[in-house]
């Protein structure tokens, strides 16, 4: 964990700080003593398989679930003592949209804004601003139910901004969306970050984490397996390139360890982690090894994620 948060002109530089943070549900340890710091103005990511502890951590930060042990500070306050004050200054985008389908798009924003004690005039003005931000101006008076998944997701994010939060928590923000809707949401989130909103994101999409996150942690089994920027993690846990080779189905692949720093044999292909994929492929061919197909690609955050958390499916 980084140095303790400091205040500059009454502005806390670290919006979230956790030290030895734990969360138990009976005998089950969902979060096992993690250290986390989130700095003002950054996009911070939590990655991990199902059951890694991401959602439990996010719920503690959102002040809707108390911690079992350790220290936690959000916006310079203790969630156990100052939960209402913290919730008034953060925005939360849940994994599943929970919009009011009996209200129009605009009414969803205005009614939610009233929960924060904002005046009707302010809420009307803010709703108009957020409809523009979410590109929903032409659907403002429509009911929610007929909207596409991408539109509902944009409305959910817009609603979370009604109170001008300093910190925005997004749980799997683009799950289930088509590529066009995902990229539009990425653009909206990037704009929020440019405007100074601090983002905390959980995601299963490695490309999303690479696009959006300045720093991230990979969680597994309630603990932090690695922390850093996407680039740093790739440099630390993988190689510059990966050579993917496919052989005849059911055939035993040849010994390939001499051609790479690390070799991973999967049911459908063999991965060779190397600094130069083309050179490795040339060496493979020179030894008379001829795979059915080959692909040279740059190493990705997904390679890091799978190396740290394994390829076994977790339900």
Automatic annotation (TrEMBL):
Keywords: Antibiotic resistance, ATP-binding, Cell membrane, Membrane, Nucleotide-binding, Translocase, Transport. Transmembrane segments: none annotated. PROSITE patterns: ABC_TRANSPORTER_1, ABC_TRANSPORTER_2. It comes from the Bacteria. The keyword Hydrolase does not apply. Coiled coil: none annotated. One of its GO terms (cellular component) is plasma membrane. SUPFAM superfamilies: P-loop containing nucleoside triphosphate hydrolases. Residues 16-246 form the ABC transporter domain. It is a peripheral membrane protein. Its main location: membrane. GO terms for molecular function: ATP binding; ATP hydrolysis activity. GO terms for biological process: response to antibiotic. It is found in: Cell membrane. The keyword DNA repair does not apply. Belongs to the ABC transporter superfamily. This is ABC transporter ATP-binding protein.
């Amino acid at each position: 964990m980084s140095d303790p948060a400091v205040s500059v002109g009454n502005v806390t530089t670290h919006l979230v700080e956790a030290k030895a943070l734990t969360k138990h549900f009976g005998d089950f340890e969902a979060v096992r003593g993690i250290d986390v710091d989130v700095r003002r103005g950054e996009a911070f990511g939590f990655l991990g398989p199902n059951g890694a502890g991401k959602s439990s951590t996010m719920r503690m930060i959102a002040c809707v679930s108390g911690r079992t042990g350790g220290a936690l500070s959000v916006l310079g306050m203790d969630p156990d003592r100052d939960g209402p004050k913290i919730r008034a200054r953060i925005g939360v985008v849940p994994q599943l949209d929970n919009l009011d389908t009996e209200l129009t798009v605009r009414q969803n924003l205005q009614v939610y804004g009233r929960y924060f004690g904002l005046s009707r005039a302010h809420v009307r003005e803010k709703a108009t601003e957020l409809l523009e931000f979410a590109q929903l101006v032409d659907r403002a008076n429509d009911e929610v139910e007929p909207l596409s998944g991408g539109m509902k997701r944009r409305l959910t994010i817009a609603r979370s901004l009604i109170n001008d939060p300093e910190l925005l928590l997004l749980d799997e923000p683009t799950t289930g969306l088509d590529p066009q809707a995902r990229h539009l949401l990425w653009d909206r989130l990037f704009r929020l970050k440019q405007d100074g909103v601090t983002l905390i994101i959980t995601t299963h999409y490695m490309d999303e984490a690479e696009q959006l996150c300045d720093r991230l942690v990979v969680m597994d089994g309630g603990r932090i397996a690695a922390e850093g920027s996407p680039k740093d993690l790739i440099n630390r846990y993988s190689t510059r390139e990966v050579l993917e080779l496919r052989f005849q189905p059911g055939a035993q692949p040849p010994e390939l360890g001499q051609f790479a720093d690390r070799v991973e044999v999967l049911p459908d292909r063999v991965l060779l982690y190397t600094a130069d994929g083309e050179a490795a492929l040339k060496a493979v061919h020179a030894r008379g090894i001829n795979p059915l197909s080959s692909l040279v690609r740059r190493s990705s955050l997904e390679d890091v994620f799978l190396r740290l958390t394994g390829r076994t499916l977790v339900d």
